[in-house]
Amino acid sequence: MSTHEALSATLQKFGAPETVVREYEHWTVLLRPHQVTLGALVLIAKEAATALPQLSPAAFSELKQVTDHIEQALQAAFSYDKVNYLMLMMVDPDVHFHVIPRYNKPRIWAGQEFVDVAWPGPPQLSTGMELSETAKTTLRNELIRCWPC
User: Fold this and answer.
1) Is 21 within 8 Å of 78 (Cβ atoms)?
2) pTM beyond 0.85, yes or no
3) Which of 15, 23, 73, 149 is the least crowded, having the fewest Cβ atoms under 10 Å away?
4) Strands 129-130 and 34-35: what pairing?
5) Tell me: the pLDDT tens digits for 23-33?
6) How many domains does the chain have?
7) In this structure, what CATH number is given to the domain that contains residue 127?
């Protein structure tokens, strides 16, 4: 993200620029500060849109590549069982998805156990783990390391 580009309120809420994992032309992938499950991300559109149909055809086209990369990185890093994309936009109106990797068994990362307490039902956004700043940085760096291309 260029320093002259203004950060949207949604990007700021989710910790940008410190939490940015990957930038694309139309999308930004960030580490979700509250880890509902291990590797939870937020995928935010860069366009000024508050409804999915307001996005440009180019943003929709790029979404395929972005989600492919997200799932490749999460699989390489944590061997998820399923990925849920939640588009809620009730509190943060900009077009964005909460990307929640799902696990049928606990995962151990950095000496901590992460349990998907809602498996196999819908994810519970109020559950999960708050990580220290050091752990967030380490997790973000692990995802960057596993990112394709």
Assistant:
1) no
2) yes
3) 149
4) antiparallel
5) 999 999 999 99
6) 1
7) 3.30.428.10
